[in-house]
Description:
This protein has helices at 12-23, 68-77, 101-114, 124-133, 138-152, 162-166, 183-193, 234-238, 249-255, 309-314, 324-331, 367-374, 395-418, and strands spanning 4-8, 27-31, 43-47, 53-57, 81-83, 92-93, 176-178, 197-198, 203-209, 212-217, 222-225, 227-230, 258-261, 263-269, 277-281, 286-290, 301-307, 344-347, 358-361, 380-382.
Amino acid sequence: MSPRIAVIGAGFAGLAAAHRLTKLGAEVSVLEARDRVGGRVWSTTVTAPDGSEHVIERGAEYVLNGYDHLRAILAELGLEQVDTGMSYYVREPGDLPGRTAQDIVEAGRAAGAAIERVSADASAEDVLALLTAEGTPVELVDALRSRIEVSTAVPAATVTAESLAHVASFEPLPSYRIGGGNQRLALGLAELLGSKVRLNTPVSAVENEGHGVRLTLADGSVEEYDAAIVAVPLALLQAEDGRAAPTSPERERALSRVLLGQAAKLHVALGSRPSTSAVMSVAGRYWTWTAYAQDGQVAPVLNAFMGSAPAIAAARLVEDPQAWAPEVAALRPDLDIAPDAVPTVTVWAEDPWARFAYAAHAPGETPVDAAAIEAPIGAVYFAGEYAEAEFTGLMEGAIRSGERAAESVMAAASAKAGA
Ligand SMILES: Cc1cc2nc3c(=O)[nH]c(=O)nc-3n(C[C@H](O)[C@H](O)[C@H](O)COP(=O)(O)OP(=O)(O)OC[C@H]3O[C@@H](n4cnc5c(N)ncnc54)[C@H](O)[C@@H]3O)c2cc1C
């Protein structure tokens, strides 16, 4: 008989898990709290002054190097990736007169080499301190600090030195998006899963019971399965008022080195089509860009991304999200921001089903920690961007971890059936 598996959360991790489970012959039910699939991948539109509609990504934006599992799903769903025509990796410093993106690229390469000269448990800030001691100009070191804090969404003193080389790479590689919006991957998988995906169905508790698991739904009803994959954001599992799931001392120890990054985005319509561009505010810990859309033209939309909780607090985005708009306009006087355009601002700390943007690792994180985070507890398995060691914090990491959890569940089910 096919094992009955519950997947909690219909983000990329949960949907990739459910898709793989279905292929492996399981009977699957996906329970999602929101009224939509995709989780932190959320594509909507803005309207330009001429009435045209343009896709924006309120969550994850860039499909980057090495996203092999994501690209395999795109091929399966018949979706295309669209070159943005700019590089996520290279940004002009808009508030550092006399300095260019190339200066930051070169300082970034020096930082990459300096990583070899710090201890294995050093932070990104330790590398920056070494660069300063070796004579790199202070404003370029701060540009690197800003770059790392924007990309990892946490302060540089708290995150591993490797993040400098990994997340905040400085090479001018191409960057892509999914044609029609990144959320189309989630919508495509949900369509294949059909009625197995149940929206507006928050799960309150997951417990091991007997040979299987017992779920308590927010409406008080109870459902039983052979196993469950918990694919909800880590912040919700850790919240005081969070949804109960089993844990262990090993898991908690490993999770203590996982950092919860905070980020916010802004999108505003432009009165005319710009060129592609990427300009950062070193002091404001955000960057702005304009990029090609699926129609092969640059969309008349200015996008901005701010990373790290201190930056979001300093900009008072929770209290007054629109306060960011004049800052962005001042950084980009080259763009034709429509005077009466109301920006769309998304602050992920305020999203009740996410509460943070994505994970990063604190210094000292080891492969043993990664294994402990993914290890099942009884018949409860875990998936999500935070649970993947290599592509932590990214769409690719969510997919890989979901697929891996599905394979582990099925391996255990067949071992049990054969016992
Ligand atoms: C602003 C921002 C920018 C980003 N930029 C990029 C980028 O450029 N490139 C990139 O690769 N990645 C990026 N990311 C990261 C990417 O979005 C995530 O890594 C990935 O989408 C996480 O997928 P997930 O399935 O682990 O979690 P989620 O997408 O959060 O999915 C979890 C799901 O669980 C649901 N849920 C929560 N609680 C419950 C419950 N109790 N019961 C039932 N369901 C529940 C949620 O509603 C959600 O749908 C970005 C993220 C943000 C926020």
